[in-house]
Design brief:
Elements (H helix, E strand, L loop, with lengths): L1 H20 L2 H27 L5 H29 L8 H27 L11 H25 L9 H24 L1 H4 L5
Helix pairs in contact: 1-2, 1-3, 2-3, 2-6, 3-4, 3-6, 5-6
């Protein structure tokens, strides 16, 4: 998780720099690199932790959740820094920055519960390890992420330089990450979906 947090911090620094320079190109490039790097680090963590695990599907789901938490940290810090450490101004910035950080904390907590469940025997698992809940979370992530990207693109918010331009870069990247986390979660949970032991 440490490498993913370092990536999130570095990505947030690029986001703030892009905001200070007023460069949408640098903002999109930095956001894309942050998302791609976090995805690669998460895939590596999933592969490393699944090997020999009692319940590899749960371990994978927990690591995917931690990867999304790191992306939400990037989004929260990037949003706050872009609007409070530069000349950009947008009156909703603090609300969304705090919301992203709350999402990050929630994702870490839920991922921890899923990870504990993955290490436990099936009889000792709790609510957070119910297969239907894990699948429902993944489906909601996938659908919500796709819907958000489609909305942002259809509304034209991704193609302008209004006061909220940097927020829209962050929203679109976070939404793409959310959809990717949902899809990766469904792939990781395919054994549970088919009714096999996780």
């Amino acid at each position: 998780m440490r490498r993913r947090l370092i990536t999130a911090l570095a990505g947030a620094a690029v986001t703030v720099s892009a905001a200070a320079a007023g460069s949408a190109e640098v903002a999109w490039l930095g956001a894309g690199l942050t998302l791609t790097t976090l995805a690669a680090l998460t895939a590596r963590a999933v592969a490393a932790r699944r090997a020999g695990a009692r319940s590899p599907a749960y371990i994978a789901a927990a690591e995917i959740g931690r990867g999304f938490a790191a992306l939400a940290v990037w989004a929260g810090l990037g949003m706050g820094g872009a609007y409070y450490l530069t000349d950009l101004s947008w009156y909703h910035a603090y609300q969304y920055a705090l919301a992203f950080l709350l999402v990050a904390g929630s994702a870490v907590w839920i991922s921890g519960r899923i990870g504990v469940a993955g290490a436990a025997a099936a009889a000792d698992r709790d609510f957070w390890s119910a297969p239907w809940l894990l699948v429902a979370i993944a489906v909601l992530q996938l659908a919500g992420g796709i819907a958000a990207v489609v909305f942002l693109a259809a509304s034209g918010k991704l193609f302008g330089m209004r006061a909220d331009w940097m927020a829209n870069v962050i929203f679109a990247t976070a939404a793409a990450g959310l959809a990717a986390a949902g899809l990766a979660g469904l792939v990781a949970l395919r054994g549970l979906i088919a009714g096999r032991a996780g």
